[in-house]
Design brief:
Guanine Nucleotide Dissociation Inhibitor, domain 1; 3 domains; seven-stranded mixed beta sheet; 35% helix
């Protein structure tokens, strides 16, 4: 058993924890980072599967993600534009495919008007929200009492308009059915990206990728920390007390420190035994947070055949098993890669069948967008974060109905020497690596200030 003394022990070697660790070291504080996995990165994971480089976790960079963009520049990483030339495709509830350009799906005029009206309303409500303080929205309590599905139903009886607007929050972001989260939670998702319009605009929210993969961010941050990063060391017990610091007991290593940062998703806090137990408020609050569920599907082909048809690779439908898909071809790769997403209830359904049938159903869905060639990839892989031992869901934790207004103001509050930092707790950049970096910086600044007091 290795025993260490540090100023700060960080639990989790994702972007939040490693950002915080580097900031603390720069300020002259000693750190140790304990990571349960055998790799750094958390929900960022770039790997080679059957000879193809795949972004198993997060991957995109948006123009408003200043914290991430600054970090990429600091680390010397390059970006490239997501391929988007040509037409997008949309499949309606009858199964009819329509090619289109722009942001609004090709729907009947009345449905288009209903969608535009909903987007305008959501933009107005999101503009009233500080994403770091969503509970202070003028209508926070009322908006947190009504599900996003019910709120949409109150505003239009056009089912296709409701399905399409729900798609951008429920399927694409929170990865939960629209009846399972509040309108306030939906507005936080929109405000965290600058507006609901940004979520609708794939060319904005999915703008660029990193040459070589986004996991290079945590990998390079970890390099700067050297031997202060310990992999394969899940923290089993965290002893703490006001004025006495913390003792983190992990497999084969114990760290005594003045402060601790839990840089992991809230749904994983119960994996740690706290001595003494966390206060009642934290126990209650964390029970109202849960992960969504999505399968990220990677299909690699001998060439990007959809481009020959004048297609961008961008595809949407709330009525397909795969509700959205994109050209995800790697920088400089002659092969073509599609990335598709199967979310919430659809993901539940396809995991009730065999792996072979699941693959067949998903590729059949892709063929509805791109034609029969989509059924024959040379590499096929499913990122299933729901079964990943140290994640157990995607993309981030969100509150149930009423939880955000009830507990949001308490979510980041430290408990004695224990601080909290992850993308799940972010305002701007919520559930993205940008938010993780922001939270790592924020918590580090608080500890530095406290340590110097």
């Amino acid at each position: 058993m290795v025993e260490l003394n540090r100023d700060v022990v960080i639990v989790g070697a994702g972007a939040a924890g490693l950002t915080a660790a580097n900031a603390l070291r720069k300020a002259g504080l000693s750190v140790a980072v304990l990571e349960a996995r055998d790799r750094v990165g958390g929900r960022l994971w770039t790997d080679v599967i059957d000879g193809a480089m795949l972004e198993i976790g997060g991957q995109w960079v948006s123009p408003d993600q200043d914290a991430l963009i600054d970090t990429l520049a600091d680390l010397g990483l390059e970006t490239y534009d997501r391929y988007r030339e040509g037409d997008s495709v949309y499949v309606d509830q009858t199964g009819r495919l329509t090619r289109f350009t722009g942001e609004i799906f090709p729907v009947p005029p009345a449905t288009e008007k209903a969608m535009v009206d909903l987007i305008d309303t959501l933009d107005g409500l999101a503009a009233q929200m500080d994403p770091d303080r969503p509970w202070e929205h003028p209508d926070a309590e009322a908006l947190d009492r009504i599900s996003f599905e019910a709120w949409l139903a109150e505003r239009t009886d056009d089912q296709e308009a409701r399905d399409n607007i729900a798609l951008f929050i429920a399927g694409a972001m929170l990865t939960k059915p629209a009846h399972a989260f509040s309108t306030l939670q939906a507005l936080l998702m929109a405000a965290s990206a600058g507006s609901f319009s940004h979520l609708v605009d794939a060319d904005f929210i999915l703008d660029k990728r990193v040459v070589g993969g986004l996991q290079q961010v945590p990998l390079l941050l970890a390099e700067r920390l050297g031997d202060d990063v310990f992999l394969g060391r899940p923290v089993r017990t965290l002893e703490w007390g006001d004025g006495t610091g913390v003792t983190a007991i992990a497999d084969d290593v114990t760290v005594r420190a003045r402060f601790a940062i839990l840089a992991l998703a809230p749904n994983l806090y119960p994996r740690i035994s706290f001595v003494p137990a966390l206060p009642r408020l934290q126990h209650q609050m964390h029970q109202h947070l849960s992960m969504g569920f999505v399968i990220k599907v990677h299909a690699v082909y001998d060439r990007p055949f959809w481009r020959e048809q004048g297609l961008s690779g961008t595809a949407f439908s709330p009525y397909e098993i795969s509700h959205e898909a994109y050209d995800n071809t790697n920088h400089g790769d002659e092969r073509g890669t599609l990335v598709a997403f199967v979310s919430d209830r659809n993901a539940d359904d396809v995991f009730r069948v065999s792996a072979g049938e699941r693959k067949e159903r998903i590729l059949e869905s892709l063929s509805h967008y791109y034609g029969p060639e989509a059924k024959n990839p040379v590499v096929y892989y499913e990122s299933d974060w729901g079964s990943e031992e140290w994640t157990r869901g995607a993309y981030a934790a969100s509150f149930d109905l009423g939880g955000l207004h009830r507990y949001g103001a308490d979510l980041r509050d430290p408990v004695g020497p224990i601080h909290f930092a992850c993308s799940d707790l972010a305002g701007a950049g919520y559930q993205h690596v940008d938010g993780a970096i922001r939270m790592g910086r924020l918590v580090a600044s608080h500890i530095i200030e406290e340590a110097r007091a």
